[in-house]
Design a protein that fits this description.
alpha/beta, Leucine-rich repeat, LRR (right-handed beta-alpha superhelix), 3-stranded parallel β-sheet, two-stranded antiparallel sheet, 1 helix, 5 strands, globular
Length: 99
């Protein structure tokens, strides 16, 4: 997904107050800092096994922006099948999350 498309999707999610966002399988190499503006998000999926399609839905994320720490309502964060070498310390500040 092109950056402009992703930013448009994040803008729509913010405007419409989405509580769940599935970005798995979009072949993303970075997550823009604008992700931190989605403070209503409860579930963020960045990678998963799709049982129905019987395939892995992946991205190529190697880092996460520190703005992800602004998602204080996040209860579930799926990072499966990415290329993260470490998790940002701000994830420890997300009291509600199940990573």
């Amino acid at each position: 997904m092109e950056r402009a498309e992703l930013l448009a999707l994040l803008g729509r999610a913010k405007a419409e107050g989405w509580t769940e966002l599935d970005l798995a399988g979009l072949d993303l190499v970075e997550l823009p800092p604008e992700i931190g503006e989605l403070i209503q998000l409860q579930i963020l999926t960045l990678g998963k096994w799709d049982q129905e399609a019987r395939e892995i839905k992946v991205n190529r994320l190697t880092t996460l922006p520190p703005e992800i720490g602004q998602l204080k309502n996040l209860t579930e964060l799926s990072l499966s099948f990415n290329q993260l070498s470490e998790l940002p310390a701000v994830l420890g500040e997300l009291e509600k999350s199940d990573i």
